[in-house]
Amino acid sequence: MDKSSNRAEEVSKDLIPGLPPELAMECLVRVPYQFQSAMRSVCRSWRSLLSDSSFIRERRRCGKAELLLCLVQPFSPPNTASKAVGDTETPLGVEEKGEKRASSTPRFGLSVYNATMATWNRVAFPQQQIPLFCECVAVQDAGKILLIGGWDPETLQPVKDVYVLEGSGRRWRRGAPMKESRSFFACASVGPTKVYVAGGHDEQKNALRSAEVYDVEKDEWSTIPSMAEGRDECQGFSMGTGLGGFCVLSGYATESQGRFRQDGEVYDPMTKSWSRIENVWPFPDTSPRGRTITAGDTRGSSRLRCFSTDRELQSNSQWESRDGWRKWKLDVEVIQLPASGSSVYVGSSGGESVIMIGGRRESEGAMMKTTEEKNAGNWSHVNDISFGFSTLPFSHASIYV
Fold first, then answer.
1. pLDDT for position 6
2. Cα dihedral sign for 111, 200, 322, 286?
3. Do 58 and 25 meet the contact criterion of CB atoms below 8 Å apart?
4. Where do transmembrane segments lie in this chain (predicted)?
5. Long-range contacts of 55-59 (CB under 8 A, 24+ apart)
6. pTM for this one?
7. What is the spatial distance between Cα 140 and Cα 62, in angstroms, rounded to a whole number?
8. What is the pLDDT, as a whole number, of residue 313?
9. How high is the pLDDT of residue 175?
10. pLDDT of 172-210, one tens digit each?
11. In this structure, are residues 156 and 189 in contact, taking their beta carbons and an 8 Å threshold?
């Protein structure tokens, strides 16, 4: 039994006086997520239980966990700046109160769509705003949401900053900074506790080859070998399952900005080395960001879905790509988007592909979804996006709470 299980068993002994621990746990995991902030104030044992990642696992086992889609997106005009909340506890999903401020620089926030309850909210942040173009990544087993890198809102320079929000959504904290400032980089959670980053660009807009890995439990960054190529505006994802690889898809070199590479590189944590995988991105004029969904299959194998509005590409809709050592394999498929000509962003949430369709005005926008297993071309309408949340995100992550 792991440490978190022992801890959960210990705190469950006195959860509700007069009830056996098992029955008390059955009661508490069924309380909707929106009330968990108040639950933490009841007693020390409840606070300890809700702070433990095993509580979320138990909610998932009982089918009571709620799915949150977290989106790094610019505020819709007029721009909104939140008031600082300091170190006070701010529940995930509580909309921040702010004041209007005109600015030519976009202002970014972390928005949350609760797919279970079909509600939209914005997360309060200790600073006036989160870093522009930061990467959002969720580590489900650790119950954490991370915001990494991006631009400083004032200087517009890449940063090393890391902000961590517990899955219980009560408090932001500063994580250990990256070893190198970067933005527009590849980022992905691989395994239960590791987050990998690679590529992007530095303060001089030079494409980076460097890469590093963050241990969420230890709050430590370590440098890993650099990629063979510098890759700006690349996309990262996990390959395979378990201790799989970290794939950095496409991107471009400093001297060829805007011309996206067709290849990618995969880092193997076991051998601590990179290998190249060819012919995985067929759109030289388009960034893979917001256009790709991946799903792990077996060790070393993944499915990559490229979403496109170009019908001419459908004639070559499926192919297979491997690295030179034939260790990593991608089954690639092009999926026709249902909104040709519209501004769209495709993400993954809870085993489904989700498409956000941006509107011309703040009150416009829609969300659609399709399964990632079968009938991927059959899209169904989820809902119209709430007022103030229709701008297309830069990055996203989903987590069960």
1. 54
2. positive
3. yes
4. none
5. 55/8, 55/28, 55/29, 56/140, 56/143, 56/167, 56/400, 56/401, 58/8, 58/25, 58/29, 59/29, 59/400, 59/401
6. 0.86
7. 17
8. 59
9. 97
10. 999 999 999 999 999 999 988 999 999 999 999 999 999
11. no
